[in-house]
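Weekly structure sync, notes
Attendees: PL (lead), two postdocs, one rotation student
Agenda item 3: pending single-chain targets
PL asked that the sequence for the first pending target be pasted directly into the notes so everyone works from the same version. It is reproduced below exactly as submitted, 984 residues in total.
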Amino acid sequence: MSSLFSRDRTLSYSRRDSTTTTTSSSTAALSPLQSPFPDLTPSLSTSDLRETAYEIFVAACRTSTGKALTYIPSDLSPSPSPSPSPSNSSSPSPSMQRSLTSTAASKMKKALGLRSSSSSSGLIKRAEGSPGSGGKPKKPVTIGELMRVQMKVNENVDSRIRRALLRIAAGQVGRRIESTVLPLELLQQFKAADFTDQREYDAWQKRNLKMLEAGLLLHPHTPLDESNTAAQRLRQIIQAALDRPIETGRNNESMQVLRTAVMGLANRSSDGSLFESCHWADGLPLNLRLYETLLEACFDVNEEASIIEEVDELMDLIKKTWGILALNQMLHNICFSWVLFNRYVATGQFENDLLDAADSQLAEVAKDAKTTKDPAYAKILNSTLTAMLGWAEKRLLAYHDTFDAGNIESMPTIVSIGVSAAKNLVEDISNEYRRRRKSEVDVAHSRIDTYIRSSLRTAFAQLMEKADSSRRASRSQPNPLPVLAILAKDVGELASKEREIFSPILKRWHPFAAGVAVATLHICYGNELKQFVSSITELTPDAVQVLRAADKLEKDLVQIAVEDSVDSDDGGKAIIREMPPFEAEGAIANMVKDWIKTRIDRLKEWVDRSLQQEVWNPQANEGGFPPSAVEVLRIIDETLDAFFQLPIPMHPALLPDLMSGLDRCLQYYVSKAKSGCGSRNTYVPIMPALTRCTTATRWGKKKDKTLNTKRNAQVATMNGDTSFGVLQLCVRINTFQRFRTELEVLEKRIITLLRNSESAHVEDFSNGLGKKFEITPAACVEGIQQLSEAAGYRIIFHDLSPVLWDGLYIGEPSSSRIEPFLQELEKNLTIISNTVNERVRTRIIADIMGASFDGFLLVLLAGGPSRTFTQQDSQIVEDDFKSLKDLFWANGNGLPMDVINKYSTTVRDVLPLFRADVDSLIERFRRSTLETYGSSAKSRLPLPPTSGQWNPTEPNTLLRVLCYRNDEAASKFLKKTYNFPKKL
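Predicted structure, written out during the meeting:
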């Protein structure tokens, strides 16, 4: 017996007091439910039950094995070879040895899905030595020691109990513990002298007497006859002892009287025969309350919501009390389900593992309930499940108030417990089950349907209360209708929350949970909306807002119902029939289209008026950007803002109409702005006939008599009195470029506005159709290209014509070189660079360069009879062209060399012809002509037409070089072949 709960005696230290204090305060923080097992008696406290339960546990374990209940926590290293104490000389059995190595991986916890305690074996660590012990492992502690700590029994009490059990065992050799009335035997073993003070002894005696009263008189295993003399005698003894303690001891007379009365009651049966067991603690509900107390010891005293890691070993020993308490596996399952469930509630409903474990145990209870018709079992089952169902339904009948993101994980298990309890109940306080039980599917379906409708009606009522309060507060205002829009929005959010959070959970028991939910909300909201819809006389902004909200809500609810009912027999038609359409979207769409048309018409009229008065001179427009362009962009921006502020449910659908109208207005602005500005062809002269033909031809037409050749070219270019001068063209180019940039910004802003619109969906962003300006960007690019080329060719062929055409290579090339032209061109480039937007600056300068290269070639190949070139002049021409390129290169600060090379390709290809000798040129001309015209050219070389596409292999280009060659051989060839004049 001394080895039963053996432990290292050094473990007896004062910390047990702190342990008791800590756990007591911890227990006080719990808020458990009322036990489903009836009250025993007001005189029995929780502490009384706990001490008696511990005594039963120790007694039951003592008689079940003669070996020590020893285990080694997984985080402690076993002692190398501890010397066996006299009280614990036998080694653990094989089964016990296996349990020693599996403590940290409890099979029970794994089966129930319970997490491991963060303070694994912490109870034992606390029992193994004081903080000053240096943390060295002591001798192995026992399951009994663990149970002592768990049940908050101090070591003095534990030692007294074990000492008493040794004495009882010595006096009753061979008797089973079930045949012993433990409180009676304990009373006989001790006197007041065995306690530290009289108060402790009195409390101990009263507890044992009250336990005898509870087990034999108040809750007997076999019902008592009121005339039972043993019962009357025992009641008198207990009542007297509670007022004045009786003398206890082995041979005391009062104890003999007490023993006679107790044993007469404990051993009786309904038929008068004697039991082998003493029925003093196996009557309902006393035995269940005692067993509940034992099961509570499975929870870590440091972590109230965590079951200890050693629960497997502890539970095996707790079950040894079944013989004393007359319990079995079925009653254990009920009691353990309740303990797990109650601990979840008592610890703040945070540890979902406990809830899951309780649900798992209920599955076992359901199996048990199908296999027994025991009325006592049915009564316990009914009271336990009723308590659990009552708690669950308080939360499920208004689950929107109960669950949120922080505790939603517990909802599936709470629903499962509620449904499981409902299925297994014989009766329910709500009379729901006081009739023939339906099938399990019907019960689950019915309960979930009730939960959904009840919770949503409650939630809607709360929204209505909020709306009614707002309506009362706004009665003095002209129109309180937006309250309905707010209500619709709130209902839509409630439906979304239901679909996303609750319906996936409830769908496990009700296949159309979301459909039932939205149907309930539709009915609730429809009743409020019906009066409003019938009273609409005009589509005011408030009315639009309400109808938009109602339309959106309708679509959302219908969509949810359809998606949820797709697998139903009728495809959800029954639910949809409860949702008559509002037909608000069509009316709103027509009104918005009229609004768009009015805005677009006004904008186009404004563009016409503004462009008629626009001044394109950069000196009159800050930043080179005209006021009309700033204003048109501002109007468009305001129009977009106004559109997205409309309280309509179809922004994505109607946005293309608005964008198309704005796009047309902007394209109209671009078209009007570039109208009359000309193009490249406006300034490129008609190609003159071959030189030597006439001396009256200048650039293919008569000389412009309005052009003063002595006028400063810069002044003529920059200060013209027309609105189509080069700088005016630059302002227009700036405008088009600004449009391109601002349109990109507007398009991004439109996407942002669309994303912020409640009516937008993911598919609305899958393509750019209807959200971009389709024609204006292309019109701007085309306009920039047109006006940039027009500006370049105007400068070269119009504004700088006096220094290019009338000055370059006139007479002797060596005395009329390109320098004057370069000076004037550089002045123009400087002013243009300071005027034009930097993002198109390279483009316009490149176009000017291209025009200058074309003008340079035109001087060389069609410059009229005042120009001739010798073979030696080719170097001058090449040097001048290099100077022209260098102007645009600007020592690396100008155009990129690859751009210059691209534009100068034709000139570079043609210039070598001026270096070639006449015979080579003639031969190349013949060969090129024959290749072009074939055999028909063998007898007589045809006169090639002027194409204007200069090329060193093209006949007309070669012929023109020959025409300008100041060489006798060239003149003879031309005279002989085409009868051209010999003199230029």
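Discussion points:
- The chain is about 60% helix and 0% strand.
- The mean pLDDT is 80.
Action: rotation student to compare against the earlier draft before next sync.
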